[in-house]
Automatic annotation (TrEMBL):
UniProt keyword terms in alphabetical order: ATP-binding, Ligase, Membrane, Nucleotide-binding, Transmembrane, Transmembrane helix
Record-annotated AMP-dependent synthetase/ligase domain positions: 47-413
Pfam families: AMP-binding (PF00501), AMP-binding_C (PF13193)
Stated name of the protein: 4-coumarate--CoA ligase
InterPro entries recorded: AMP-bd_C (IPR025110), AMP-bd_C_sf (IPR045851), AMP-binding_CS (IPR020845), AMP-dep_synth/lig_dom (IPR000873), ANL_N_sf (IPR042099)
PROSITE patterns: AMP_BINDING
Gene3D superfamilies: 3.30.300.30, N-terminal domain of ligase-like
Gene: LOC110703662
Occurrences of domain AMP-binding enzyme C-terminal (ranges): 464-539
A Gene Ontology cellular-component term: peroxisome
Amino acid sequence: MAQDNKNMDKKSGFCISNSTFYSKRPAIPLPPNTSLDITTFISSRPHCTTTAFIDATNERHVSYSELWSTVDSLSFSLSSTWGVRKGHVILILSPNSLSFPLVCLSVMSLGALITTTNPLNTTREISKQIADSKPFLAFTTPELAPKLAGSGIPVILLGGEKGSFGNLKILTTLEEMVKGERKEVRVKERVCQNDAAALLYSSGTTGESKGVVSSHRNMIAMVQTIIGRFRLNDEDQRNGNTFICTVPMFHIYGLVAFATGLLAAGATIVVLPKFEMNDLLLAISKYKVSYFPLVPPILVAMANHADHIKKNYDLSSLKHVLSGGAPLGKEVIEGFLEKFPNVVIMQGYGLTESTGIGATTDCLEESRRYGTAGLLSPSTEAKIVDPESGKALGVNQTGELWLRSHTVMKGYFNNHEATISTLTSDGWLKSGDVCYFDEDGFLFVVDRLKELIKYKGYQVPPAELEALLLTHPEIADAAVIPFPDKNVGQFPMAYVVRKAGSNLSENEIMDFVAKQVAPYKRIRRVAFIDSVPKNASGKILRKDLIKMATSGSKL
């Protein structure tokens, strides 16, 4: 859809002739070469002679030259020895590590798809993803290898030695692959920007996660946006930029930004395998970290314990915190700035389906538009659509947010029905979020049509937990809602209808769920109810339950 500058309000970015909001940020053109994969795009950019990665657990440094040499060796081994071809799906089950980006970059350079999964997921949850994506190979650690037992997938170990892992077929280790001698010339298949690069699973409203297929074009556009956002193209900005990666690399933001994207700017990335506040603060101090991505509960914790933190850790290098997952309110922003006045808060909004891109605040002044998710990202268009009538709305009108940009996914993996219900024929992505744009073009997220629960930044689909609860022989009906909590954001709370004669307890229900899901999905509060409120079509009235839970009233 062409931009009509004559009918566009420069203040809000809204074009009255086509009811479209346009980004107020400078556009970012795609590379003209259509035969380009994300790995080649990143590696071909000019780099400073800096360290690419630092492992905070053992202080190992990986230079850029070592990084690209290792990626080349690994991709050669995958292709020539293990037969990985364009279109194959390769699974990685691992916490954050230096191996994670090596595997991702190598796999994508071949035109194969990298698919990731949360190490906290149970064997049951992982097996469902494997059944859908059908990986050709899997990379995992010795500690996590048992979760792949029975999958039938050939496994390559990240660290450790080949040993006995039940009935797993262990092919080799990453170290052996990289050290292997080349005995033939690799013939690399042609990879285009439109080819699939990644397959990440996004929580859906039906209780089943859907595989989001992102192209090389999607990822290249995401990388360019990141570089532009932090002005990392500028020579004075490229030197001395150190990011700390606590964001999970299996997540879209961690994968595209920290496992791949920031490498295009020559940044140094400090890697932590998991979040632990003491280790995190020590690493920021030791490695002079300047950029720190976090979720709102961590920002709140830092503000609440600022005196202790400043007494015991040197955070003088920290210049920016990057918050995502939920908009920050005035009290949180000003409370943090009072304790850390030299740190700029930046925020962002995005979806797995939009390769993490949507809207951002890129300076403190923008973040002080309290409650906003920011201005539309470069080269991004948006609509606000009435969910009932389908009518496109204007400034300060609330409806479902639709997005269109080079970062919008190709579609859902082997799920045509879900794809056509989410992507329009002319490229609009229906976000499932209820939003509005104000008169200055700032996006505000009001509610979620998708009704996902955000626990410490993790997405928890209520329908998945409801389906699990209904498998219990003593439960007649159930509904799961987000319960607000200042420490974690939200946690899952269940309303349960017990079958006649049942004395099922709250703890028994929580234990039943805990044994079958990842820790972040666990039910942490249960209330019993005579019947679950539903509308005429049978849809659970979650808003009524949320109101009841937070007010202490009864239906």
